[in-house]
Amino acid sequence: MRAALLPCFAFLLSLAACRPPAPAVDIQRIEDQRIEASQELIGALASGPAAQRARAALAMGRIQSPSYATALAAAVADTDGAIRGAALFALGQLGLARGVTPPAEAVTAVRGALADPDPELAALATDALGKLAPEGAEGELAGLLSSPSPAVRAAAGLGLFRVRFAPVWRGQVDRAPEWSEDAKNALRKALADPETEVRQAAVHAFSRYGDAASVEALGTLLEDPDEWVR
User: What is the CA radius of gyration of the chain?
Assistant: First the structure.
């Protein structure tokens, strides 16, 4: 009897092997429809191929729903750098959603990544902090303009621009708050940074917020060797 069942068992195994794989999550559809609490998308971020997980994080950032903050915050601790980077980008995007106060877990996760040993990931965390613009971010960003990493310094310069305007974009205030003197001094110093990308970021920040005391320093950059700085 057992021998007679073996061919049937083998046949069933062969059918299982030929069964088409479960359909992949249609991340593009979820993103296009801006589904704000997709369990499919959360699942795609939690498990599966690294490329899919990073793509899921990117979609969450584009949708800009705070319902994804917890999943994205968890992804910041992932062992894969691409997934951590996509999650940090997405968390920052939550700070640019109109009418939404950035979730506390988003701010905590981003702040925890500011000291990431990978300077590119630390720069992404710095960029996200500027977009989230939580209380105290201005001072943190001003301090990061002294980072040994040029990528972090550049992100901090742009972050100081965003930290003023994010509350306006979110509809929380009508007028951008003033920079502190410490922040302005840090940006003025960045205008003389040896790295082009840092000078570009500092000029961009000042171009969006006039500061009479910085006009002379900005004038010296009209002869900068980089055309974008000029």
Answer: 23
Beta-carbon-side half-sphere exposure of residue 118 (alpha carbons within 13 Å): 12
Whole-number Cα distances in Å, 65 to 91, 118, 200, 207, 209: 10, 27, 31, 30, 29
**Contact criterion met (CB below 8 Å) for 191 and 221:** yes
Structure tokens at 6: 């073996």
What are the pLDDT digits (tens) for 25-40? 889 999 899 999 999 9
DSSP assignment of 54-83: HHHHHHHHHHT-GGGHHHHHHHTT-S-HHH
The tally of CA atoms less than 13 A away on the side-chain side of residue 212 is 0
pTM for the model: 0.83
Residue 64 gets the label, from left (phi > 0), alpha (psi -120 to 50) or beta, of left
Q: Determine which helix (DSSP H) or strand (DSSP E) holds 126, and give its type and residue range.
A: helix 119-132
Cβ–Cβ contacts within 10 Å for residue 46, how many? Answer: 13
User: How many other CB atoms sit within 10 Å of the CB of residue 207?
Assistant: 10
